[in-house]
Target: Lipoprotein
Amino acid sequence: MKKIKTLCSAILVAIISIFTGNAQELENSTLWKITGNGLEQPSYLFGTIHITCDATLDDDVKKALDETTQVVLELDMDSGDMQTKMMQNMYMKDGQTLKDLVSEEDYKAIDQMFKKHMGMSVEMMQNMKPFFLTAALYPNLIDCPMQSFEEELLKVAKKQGEDIKGLETIEDQLNVFDKIPYKEQAKDLVRSAKDDLAYDKATFSKMMDTYKKEDITEMIDMMNDENYSSIAEYQDILLDNRNKNWIPKIGEFAKEQPTFFGVGAGHLAGKNGVIKLLRKEGYTVEAVK
Model:
């Protein structure tokens, strides 16, 4: 049971960051100020990376948190029933299992990878949506204790006695992965097993370096990677539609009170990224240097 709870926590941290496409050049910054279009006070938009070795908040981010009165993340991660709802929605429909999606040889490779890195057989989890199996391995991609910017933002919000809210529900987010064919999701898992996470580790290392540079455009370019086919081929479902759904909610929150928004950095740039979509609605969105 303890391993299952650890697995759920790893998946939760990992799945809230999916990356967008259609890059558009923007300034190198992960913090953006939102004004105009009827806002009485500024709000802020911060792009996070959800698994990292160092989630220390910079001074400009701390200042933005001080100037706002509520924190809104992709999900309300302070919700007490988050884990229960996640458990209810992470499984494939119609009784499908991983063995239905991959060859016997590929299944054995995946099982070996899980035994090595997770300390358990994939047999225990083979009815989970393949993307979540992949996500469960994310903490193994870094050679350090895992940290999360979301956890740091939650700490600040609680310390300041502020409300913590979400742009979407855990059900919304998990059900996205019923719209992508399970076999497509399983392809990425097979690829990871065949080189024992070597490609994934190299990619994630580069991503962390790119995040340190605050180059949100390069982060998008990296994620148009055919080796991650379930992301590259279904960005409209994974990203564009979600970004568009967030815009009216961001406007509502910001008009109620000055708000600090924290979403995956990959959601910021691109023609369907949050920055351009907010500008299209009449907001002024400026990089905070």
About this structure: Strands lie at 31-35, 43-48, 70-73, 163-166, 259-264, 284-287. The chain has one domain: 2-287. Confidence is low (pLDDT under 50) at residues 15-24.
